[in-house]
Design goal:
Elements (H helix, E strand, L loop, with lengths): L26 E6 L6 H11 L2 E6 L2 H10 L6 E5 L4 H5 L3 E2 L1 E2 L11 H4 L20 E2 L5 E2 L5 E2 L2 E8 L1 E4 L25 E4 L2 H14 L13 H16 L3 E5 L2 H9 L5 E3 L2 H9 L4 E3 L6 E11 L4 H14 L3 H7 L4 E2 L2 H4 L5 H7 L9 E2 L5 E3 L10 H5 L2 E4 L6 H12 L1
Parallel strand pairs: 1-2, 1-3, 11-12, 11-13, 15-19
Antiparallel strand pairs: 3-15, 4-15, 5-8, 6-7, 9-15, 9-16, 10-13, 10-14, 17-18
Length: 410
């Protein structure tokens, strides 16, 4: 695994400028991950915008490296806020002018202000607001300005998932992140193989189990990284882990074939497993969720007509229809009110209001994903958004963490 040096000093940005339109049908190159590079998104956007779209789909780390090293190889960087520091420092992306985002004022308070309501926890780590606004010196921060680093789009509040058959009669075992270290699940626990994500599942598990205490759960020191990874290596040698997965398909397969009974899991896997009639459920840990927030950034090389087209694509993402597509995967969108007209009333009740499904509900592909009577773990969007323990984060010692993480998963 190649490393990229992270530095948090100020970076110079290029501000978007308007350009004249031309008649040709342009092509937008979108660099991102499987979270949002969906065929139905590409097809609908091409039809609605009258453009061509090429997806370059990679894992988190490969996407980040490609963006930082080859800013001329993409037009839009479709990633997460915790994957922003490197590409911003290397000037691979340019600032977004919010006056060109028609629905900017409708973006959720969770992103623009840091919390869904005043009483909610912001959460440790890379909360989007901490690197949303472009400051006068080119750095990123939470002080509101006209320009932003990334247009906030898809987000979610993750926890581990479990096969309900593995905890039959013992629901207390899955009420905390410490379940990931519970000997009752020995040999059947899996973690996501992405250091800026998987490490926090382990951090929350170790702390809730009383094994370690961290000064800042969102930003570990070298000594804390060593202590945690060393402990995980002992568990791995003892056979505690079933493995480490990189893709949604991998996680789905591991739970479906029984090799994993409990572990890191994302909403599309849960939806896919429910379609296969696997009794899987996401936990609601007492300590709170590990949250993440995706978004769209503009390549520093964009200008003229193609920059205009890219802004059209950004605005299209906030129009409502894309948010309904990702809702059926279990994801949320930053412009909540725009989503409702594109979901049926039972879909809205289930995905956003946390109510029981009145009828069978479809997944992204149209097949039944949620059966009537099901209730989403954790309740409504607003309850889940108010219960964030930590955000996916690129820590100050990320490069060191990557080296130790490779040792763990290798």
């Amino acid at each position: 695994m190649n490393e990229l040096t992270i530095k948090r000093g100020p970076a110079r940005s290029r501000l978007a400028a308007p350009a004249s339109h031309t008649a040709e049908r342009p092509t937008l190159r979108i660099l991102g991950t499987e979270i949002t590079l969906l065929d139905e998104i590409r097809t609908r956007a091409e039809a609605d915008l009258g453009i061509r779209i090429e997806f370059d789909c990679r894992n988190f780390q490969a996407t980040q490296r490609q963006a930082a090293r080859s800013p001329d190889a993409f037009d839009i960087y479709d990633q997460c806020f915790h994957n922003l520091d490197i590409v911003w420092y290397w000037r691979a992306v340019q600032a977004i002018d919010t006056t060109r985002i028609a629905l900017w004022n409708e973006v959720s308070e969770l992103t623009r202000e840091g919390a869904i309501r005043p009483s909610a926890r912001v959460g440790r780590g890379d909360a989007p607001v901490t690197r949303l606004y472009v400051q006068a010196d080119g750095s990123l921060g939470s002080r509101v300005t006209r320009h932003i680093s990334m247009l906030p789009t898809v987000h979610n509040f993750d926890a581990f998932a479990y096969d309900e058959r593995a905890v039959a009669g013992h629901p207390e075992r899955v009420g905390s992140w410490k379940a990931l270290l519970d000997p009752a699940f020995h040999g059947r626990v899996a973690l996501v193989d992405e250091p800026a994500i998987g490490i926090f599942d382990a951090v929350l598990a170790a702390e809730s189990a009383g094994l370690m205490r961290f000064v800042d759960t969102g930003n570990l020191s070298v000594e804390e990284i060593d202590a945690l990874i060393d402990h995980l290596l002992v568990l791995k040698a003892d056979g505690h882990f079933a493995g480490f997965w990189q893709t949604v398909d991998d996680a789905t397969r591991m739970m479906a074939d029984g090799s994993m009974a409990l572990g890191s899991m994302w909403s599309p896997s849960i939806a896919a497993l429910k379609q296969r009639k696997v009794p899987v459920r996401q936990a609601v840990p007492a300590e709170g969720y590990r949250a993440w927030h995706g978004g769209l950034s503009l390549s520093a090389r964009l200008e003229g007509r193609l920059l205009d087209v890219a802004y059209e694509y950004l605005n299209w993402w906030l129009s409502g229809w894309p948010g309904a597509v990702v809702a059926r995967q279990g994801y949320y969108m930053s412009v909540i009110d725009r989503i409702r007209p594109h979901l049926s009333a039972p879909e809205w009740d289930y995905w956003y209001d946390g109510l029981p499904a009145r009828v069978d509900l479809p997944g992204p592909g149209g097949q039944t994903s949620i059966t009537a009577g099901s209730i989403r773990s954790g309740g409504s969007y607003w309850d889940r958004a108010a219960n964030i323990a930590v955000w996916n984060t690129t820590m100050d010692e990320h490069n060191y963490l990557v080296r130790r993480w490779v040792e763990l998963v290798g």
